[in-house]
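Input structure tokens:
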């Protein structure tokens, strides 16, 4: 089963980041990027399933988080208006959970389970 999810946590506020726009893109053969889906984090800061029906094909993908709109809504000045997390999918891989730990002046990410 193919699965891609994320969880955005606002470390500065100590709570989930609700309503963050997230876009998933796949790199095409020419090196350009094609949007394959978009969503917003729920009240718990999660997007449970970001992929449309079908399988991950091997290649490069990226999650693009519109953190600028999130922080503007909080009336907080932030350094990173957009965060792009690029990752590679290898043959046989089908499950990815990629959390984003966020603050107005920094972020970190990792491959979760």
């Amino acid at each position: 089963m193919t699965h891609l999810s994320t969880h955005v946590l606002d470390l500065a506020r100590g709570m989930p980041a609700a309503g963050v726009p997230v876009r998933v893109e796949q790199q095409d053969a020419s090196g350009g990027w094609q949007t394959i889906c978009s969503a917003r984090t729920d009240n718990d800061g999660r997007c449970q399933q970001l992929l449309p029906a079908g399988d991950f094909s091997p290649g490069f993908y990226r999650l693009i988080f519109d953190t600028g709109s999130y922080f503007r809504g909080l009336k907080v000045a932030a350094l990173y208006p957009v965060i792009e997390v690029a990752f590679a999918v290898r043959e046989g891989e089908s499950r990815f959970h990629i959390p984003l730990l966020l603050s107005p002046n920094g972020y970190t990410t990792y491959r979760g389970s």
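The chain has one helix and ten strands. Helices lie at 67-74.
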